[in-house]
Amino acid sequence: MTNFSEHAPLEPRRWSYWGRMVRPRPEKVNIMRATFDKLISWGGLLLVAVLLVAGGLLTWASSFVGNEVNDQFSAQHITMPTSQTGLADLPAADRAALQKYSGQKLTTGPQAKAYANHYIQVHMNEASGGQTYSEVSGQYIQQCSDPAKASSAACQKLGGLRQTMFMGDTLRGLLLYGYAFATIGTIAGYAAIAAFVAAAALFVLVGFGFWHSRRASQGVVAAGQPVGAHV
């Protein structure tokens, strides 16, 4: 009596259009797998090249922006306030924001932001009573448009305040523009690092893909070689 449990599992059967049984062909599967691996790997290699180019451009952009911001700020010869130049007279929150930069030359974006928002802005608000340049200018136009009144002490004082607010707003705006560009440069630097890391990781995966493709191709060659003559 035949014991069917001793036999190896039967291979899955496939049937052709004419009703003939066809055994699966491992070499065909391996060829498709190898081709697919190669396509994916070459696509990944192209993406690695794109990431490397992007990383290089982002690195250049970060360096260019950083150098320009540093050069433009350095040319202004602005020194961050100290206790001897008004730092001690500022409100506590503004003093705390500027304390870490005390006495330094203004050359970076964060320094520019702190100087604009916690030094210039504070003095502008103190001089105008919290009014903006637009409000002060509107008052001047309304009260001093008449030439007969323009020479009065009140109009002279209001005109001086108007000029002060204009200069303060201009300097503050330029500093904040510099801070914005410095931030863009910093972001570009981080993006460059991310691009290089992604390129390295993808390069490892591409290498694995080519290795897997080569292995599948070797399986096709092995499957096509005769293993012995049948009697």
Provide the descriptors you would attach to this structure in a database record.
231 residues
Task: Kindly summarize this structure in a few lines.
The chain is mainly alpha-helical.
Please write out the topology.
Layout: E1 14-15, E2 21-22, H1 26-76, H2 92-99, H3 109-128, H4 133-144, H5 147-150, H6 153-224
Antiparallel strand pairs: 1-2
Report on this structure.
The protein is mainly alpha-helical. It has one domain (26-224). Helices cover 72% and strands 2% of the residues. The chain contains 6 helices and 2 strands. It has helices spanning 26-76, 92-99, 109-128, 133-144, 147-150, 153-224, and strands at 14-15, 21-22. Helix 2 (92-99) runs antiparallel to helix 3. The chain is elongated and about 95 Å long. The two termini are 28 Å apart. Residues 4-11, 15-19, 220-225 and 227-231 have low confidence and may be disordered.
Average pLDDT reading = 81
Number of helices: 6
Low-confidence stretches: 4-11, 15-19, 220-225, 227-231
Strand order of the largest sheet: 1-2
Give the overall form: elongated
Order of helices and strands: EEHHHHHH
Determine the structural class based on helices, strands and strand pairing.
mainly alpha
**How many distinct folded domains?**
1
User: Quick one: how many beta strands?
Assistant: 2
